[in-house]
Amino acid sequence: MVRIKRSNSDKAAAKRNIIKKENGFLRSVRITLILGIAFVLAAGVSFNLYLSSLPPINNLDGFKPNIVTKFHAHDGEIIKTFTAYTYSRVDIKEVPQDFINALIATEDKNFYKHHGYDIYGLARSTVQNLLARKFVQGASTITQQLARILFLSNEKTFDRKLKELVIAARIEKTISKEQILEMYMNNVYLGSGAYGVEGAAEIYFNKKLKNLTLPELALIAGLPQAPSVYSPFNNLDLAIKRRNQVLLRMYKMGYIDKDQYEKAKEAKVKLSVMPRYYTTNKAPYFCDLVMAELEKLGFDETDISQGGYKVVTTLDFKTQQKANEAIIRNLNAYGLKGNNQQAAVFSFSPIDGRILAYAGGKDYTKSQFDRVQAVRPPGSAFKPFVYAAAIEKGINPNDLIDDSPVTLGDWSPRNYGNKYRGKIPVYKALMLSSNVCAARMIKEVGVRSVIQLARVLGISTPLEYDYTIALGSNGTKLYEITRAYGAFANGGYVVQPYAIESVETSRGKVVYRAPKAKASHQLSYNTAAVMTAMLKNVIKSGTGAAANIGKPAAGKTGTTDDYKDASFIGYTPNVVTGVWVGNDDNTDNFKSVQGGTVPALIWRDIMKVATEPYKNADFDYPDVELKPYKAGGEVKREEPKAEEENVESQKPAEQPAQPQQENIQPAVTPSDVVKNFKQSQTESPKPQPVPQPVQQQVPKAPVPIPMAVPESLH
Fold this sequence. Notes:
- By secondary structure, this protein is an alpha+beta fold.
- The protein has 22 helices and 16 strands.
- The chain is elongated.
């Protein structure tokens, strides 16, 4: 084998060739980088020259923006403004120097050096946004923030950022730095309804700005970044943490010494008792609902509060006023004056879905908890869904059902006062709110059918597969069960309630208009007509007599067995209203508070006002014959009016009477009821078999009940 030996000169030549190739590649990379940097610098310089060449903004020093967003009722009444203070100038000379220093240290440390935009901050935020592939960092100067407040929205887009830079540059060419600071401090939103630093000082500390201490000034200076998040009314601990960050920046920039810093960061926060902006809110629970609806539409709180929008809502202000008044007056009349003793009201149109009145409690300043959306047992107010499922399956309201003790498995329901009437028509069983009849009915139609019907009517809360749901043992939301009753009023259609009609900008441009309300046909027309006829009888002759408003109306009382919850849900052809009364701690309300007392009285007061525009409008249903029925000797204890409550004549302090039969001891337990019933059967000359409901033929086949909740109700 011949070996070829390479000389040192050959090796050196090969090495030189490799180095040349590497140098060529590095040179190309270097040139590319230099060209790229040069291009970026050229673009930056060009953009800077463009911004410098922009003309000033005319009349900016006299600009007075519309900073007040207002919520209007359907009739034009202003129900909420987002500030208790109108726009007013505060001279920069009246602002404490500590606040100016705190603001600059926190929001824009190069404020006196730039021309409206910070090139270094802009470059840093651009890199961060490119790495994140979305808008995550703003780096807005005080001038840019002022541009956004006066002329732009709060959307986080590159297009808005570019406009912000252009306007900021023009602002800097138009007015001085001191004027920019003054205008910014007078217009910036600082949470809890406070616009401008003077307003914030009064709302948070009930002081003038000039009288605030260093830590109080620092707290306000930390709010512009996230007003609601850092508001001390919403989260005091977070507000203090943010305040201390501001103080640390002031210390690092030399605005305060170490001793001032240490003392200020340990200072206690003494807030005013309650934010004053609540006084400008005439329907606070409803306005919270409107805010939630606006957020679903894509608005955020800052955008709403600073946008100067005119939000037209569906609220009927007269009805809302009456709801607020009726709650307090009727609760007080029954001695329910404690903070724990509450009521809630929800009223809407079953035709177009407009929410007419909404009260989540009796005093928003003491409790912001919305009881319209709370889950509480509806009691007998759930029974109409059992009877509706029966009507869907072909049962006639004149069919007979046995109002006598019954045991289903280990459950033995009993009627109020242990009163039983023997065989009575189905419509009368609902009118008198018979518990045993409701139990027999759910056994007849099946638990599954009742749950399916409740689901398609919009009840989303858990319902156990158990006979006891017939008496409303499972919790529901007042909002949902009231909406479900709307199907009885509107030919079987479930309509989705809504709160906002339209949103306009301060210049009158409509940016949102409510579409036609979503509606889905979930109940047969015949069932809606029959249920309305039966529920009209509840108010005319049954447990809901106290709710009589002197015009066609239908409804149902609801009282839980333990007297912890009482409700009344009823409707006319144009308005559906639900009322709940109970205690927040889930204790009982005594037997004097039942569905046919306080809730029915509140409902009556509200509906008299809500139905005024419709006069005596009646339901557009064909006549449903409810045949008169007299049980005769089979009736054990006849009672002319309410089974649940004797509503009109009962006084708050009275306890319901316990009528008794001869030779039979009063029943106090379910087993006693069964024992007494057997005893009465043996003493009777003829045994009384337990009859089952007779199903009569109807001209129309029953409509099948769907299995799932339609998408429109989600």
